[in-house]
Amino acid sequence: EAGVVQSPRYKIIEKKQPVAFWCNPISGHNTLYWYRQNLGQGPELLIRYENEEAVDDSQLPKDRFSAERLKGVDSTLKIQPAELGDSAVYLCASSTWVTDPIRNTIYFGEGSWLTVV
Amino acid sequence: SQQGEEDPQALSIQEGENATMNCSYKTSINNLQWYRQNSGRGLVHLILIRSNEREKHSGRLRVTLDTSKKSSSLLITASRAADTASYFCATAPGYSGAGSYQLTFGKGTKLSVIP
Lengths: 117, 115
Hints:
The complex is a heterodimer of chains A (about 120) and B (about 120).
Chain A: E1 5-7, E2 10-13, E3 19-24, E4 31-37, E5 44-50, E6 53-56, E7 65-68, E8 75-79, E9 88-95, E10 107-108, E11 112-116
Parallel strand pairs in A: 2-11
Antiparallel strand pairs in A: 1-3, 3-8, 4-5, 4-9, 5-6, 7-8, 9-10, 9-11
Chain B: E1 5-7, E2 10-14, E3 19-24, E4 29-37, E5 43-50, E6 55-58, E7 61-66, E8 71-76, E9 85-93, E10 104-105, E11 109-114
Parallel strand pairs in B: 2-11
Antiparallel strand pairs in B: 1-3, 3-8, 4-5, 4-9, 6-7, 7-8, 9-10, 9-11
């Protein structure tokens, strides 16, 4: 079974330029997450989707970040314009929606490593 | 914001020794998970322990959970050079409703296993 696929793996851009990241979750996983991981830190949630609906985007900096998940499968995360502080790893993850209190595992992709210069 | 705090921040041991990492958290949880991240790679799920469990084993991994102290530990026995990585604990919130959830991660412990 294919895992969570992200692209590009690495991106170097100049500040004020736009950048976009793409994610293809595990087949059948209706929940998709974008996390950001700064150097030496743990991942922090940016946005969570259930199918096409963004159910938690409270940590997404909406002035410059946007995300979409058309058709409830693939997702893109965009930054425009990028700032130096946006340099980080952007991790996509997916899981299945559950109906009981015991939560399922969340599976992560390899990440998209962004450097803003 | 990050809920978990791993301790120590960095750990260096010789191959064959055991490695113990600790995690403390602040709010009630449904489960606690441990992840590994090799340098330059994504996170790999290692083990999940539910809030009503106290100990769980998987291969060379042993996880304990003490909900009264809001803490967990990860023990890697007979460590290998390939275990060199950062280890993160992550908590799932304690609400019991159906649906998806988010994981809240700690800052991680960087483990170095010297051959």
